[in-house]
Amino acid sequence: MQSLSRKQYSAFLLLAVLSLFLLKGESISSWPREVTTESGKITLFQPEIESLSNDTIECRSAVIFEMKNDTTQLFGAIWYKSLISTDRDERTVTLLDIQVLANKFPNVEEAEVQKINAYIVKELPQWELTLSLDDILTSLKLGEQADKNSEKLKNDPPEIIFTTAPTALILVNGEPIYQKIDNTDLEYVINSPFFILRDSKANLFYLKGGETWYSSSGFYVGWEIVKNVPQKLLALESSSDSKAIVTEGHSETLPTQIFVRTHPTELLVSNGTPQYASVENTSLLYMTNTDDDILMDINAQEYYTLISGRWYKSKNLSSNRWRFVSPDSLPADFSKIPEKSPVSDVRASVAGTQESKEAVLETKIPQTATIDRTSATVDVVYDGDPSFRRIKGTQMLYAINTEKAVLWIDGVYYCCDNGVWFKSNQATGPWMVATSVPPEVMTIPPEYPIYNVKYVIIFDYTPQTVRVGYFPGYEYSYVYRGCVYYGTGYSYYPWYGHYYYARPITYGYGVHYNSYYGWGFSFGSYYDGYDWIDQDRRYHSDHRGAWGPRGYRHTQYQPETSGPHRGFQKQKPRIPRPDLIIAGSKTDKVIANNLYSRGNKGVTQSGNRKFDPRTGKQKQDRIFTKKQIQPSKRSNDLFLDHSGSVYKHQNNGTWEPQENQNSRMQLDLPPKDRYEKDKKNQSETWKRENFRTNENNNNPQEKERRSQIGKDLNVQLNSRERSKERSQTFETKKEQYQYSPPQKGSIGKKSGKDDKDR
Q1: Cα(510)–Cα(85) distance, integer angstroms
Q2: Is the pLDDT of residue 195 over 80?
Q3: Domain that holds residue 472
Q4: Are residues 79 and 113 in the same domain?
């Protein structure tokens, strides 16, 4: 190897390591990556994630240095920790304020390494590194899960209706409440997202489904297609720029049954008599002519269905005698469902599967942002004077007559809006960005509709900014016994006053889980259910509270499989990621799933996006250059064990230790020097641990040690392969994904009713 002075080597090493962290959004799914400097080239291999806690991550990476005009390769390892900035739209995680905890470069004296570290610690926080979210997700230790009973959810089954005919389920939140439409003799139902009208003069009810009108004299039953639409309905369509049509002759492709329900209900529909196919290598059957998840365990002769992440079983599909089944108590064959099965999507809801573990891990990764304290604002509007109710078992109060989540704690008002906490001395403001919230917030039970605010966390703050983040629980994704569920399962009574404010819902809209973007709504029926939601939003803009912070997310959901299509032939094909559609939107503009990327004033950075805090609009300029950064032509075949020894994966499946020339250490044996985190006192320092090398490779203890290293490295190999596969799938499909932004509309008025918990 070419001889370098200590000063030259230190300068090269510092420049090379710092240059690596210039990598920012460039081929994030491709590993390894390399940087060429004046002194040579450095190659960074895919990081191994050691821990992730809130917004802090710790990693280790193998590196190769190649000096200029020298073909010799120098192997090394670095350990580092960082804050994270997550962008779920692009599925990336940017590392901020990186701190190197330790490094190991054989043949470099310890004093020199410490000197290099001093430079790195000083300079490194200025740089960023962007990873794929799947790199992190698949690298985390799947076995180290949080408490499987972390959520006290309500899992009582809703009413489950099964039908074999084209059917529509129309949900009303409680008994219908009507509001008069100006300059007409019509009234509309304000406590339903569906467009339901009452003509008191003709004693008829009308329902608009897509481009079709239905009518009934009984509201709950007797709905029929209107062949000649009354002029007063056509006038409404004309005033809202909707297409007015006569629906005669279209009954063959429209629902022949309509169920109206005022309590939690879910609809399962098959296209005619149920048909089944076997699930390979199991005793399970799945229904092939439905888009719902319906399986049968032939051993027990019981049907299973998956609703909002929850399993229910019954001996009879039509009996409505369904019982809840915990995801860790399912028949053993559920965990044997092949990954390429047409029903492989349900594996995320089977405790112990790779998919369920990854889904749980996703709930531990926050969407983060930096908020400008001077420009971030919130506007809280109450229906009358502010009205509060006590949260049982606490001293906290929460506001019941506003769409915002407002709490009163020890004389101070706190409001959580779009993933940001605000506080005020008055219920009506003025509001300022909060730098902390009382710990009592974490004790809010799921019986209350503001339960989700406990998943919005303040990580840190400066005099100018606040670092915040929200976990998927803020968007109603919760963990129960090793799986993710949607919603708490509780029925929350909405506010009926001069205004109507909806509350979170769990059942009724065919909620499905997607491994890339969480939960989306679909309709288990013969028609495109989204068309039945009031798309004008003139009457139902106030229903956004029911869908959660992200809004209504319509999806035709179908996993990528090699098997036959599982669904109605007349439906649109379902795609892997839910479309984000806010109920009633009429535009095609793009909007992000990330709440912080929706143009909210005060957000300065979220994920890989930077914003003008005054306008909320994304900045186009980039602070850091990306010159010299490129994917390496090397194979991504270097791995580190926990001690920092470098191994290369061979084609025959074995692992070969990588040594530096003239190395004084044997990398195929436990290293004499190793940095390990001091977990006992949870300090952020690294201590040296001495090992005794064993020259006898036939020693049983040595064989066991080598065997364990091989197992650990194989786990890393599998996680990299899965990460690459997931990232490629996402990159292939993301151009197909559609977004629509919410539109402001009028709010329905109603007087005379108070809010009561069910």
Answers
A1: 32
A2: yes
A3: 367-478
A4: yes
Nearest to 730 by CA among 626, 575, 595, 586: 575
Cα–Cα distance, 72 to 106 (Å, whole number): 14
Q: Is residue 68 part of a domain?
A: yes
Q: Are 434 and 423 in contact (CB under 8 A)?
A: yes
| DSSP H or E segment with residue 233 | helix 231-239
Q: Do 412 and 462 reside in the same domain of the chain? A: yes
What is the Cα–Cα distance from 566 to 287, expressed in whole angstroms? 8
The predicted pLDDT at position 694 comes to: 39
Looking at the structure, do residues 72 and 181 belong to the same domain, yes or no?
A: no
Summarize the confidence of residues 221-248 as an average pLDDT.
Answer: 70
Structure-block tokens of residue 700: 């049983």
Residues 32, 85: one domain?
yes
| DSSP-derived secondary structure letter, 243 | P
Looking at the whole model, is its pTM more than 0.85?
no
Q: Looking at the 3D structure of the chain, how many domains does it have? A: 3
Q: How many beta carbons lie within 10 A of that of residue 379, not counting itself?
A: 10
The first and second tokens of residue 548, run together, are: 């959660």
Nearest to 48 by CA among 38, 58, 37: 58
Residue 57: the pLDDT is 87
* pLDDT for position 629: 55
Residue 541 Ramachandran class (φ > 0 left, ψ -120 to 50 alpha, else beta): alpha
Tell me: do 134 and 175 sit in the same domain: no
- Using alpha carbons, select from 261, 118, 70 the residue that is nearest to residue 176: 261
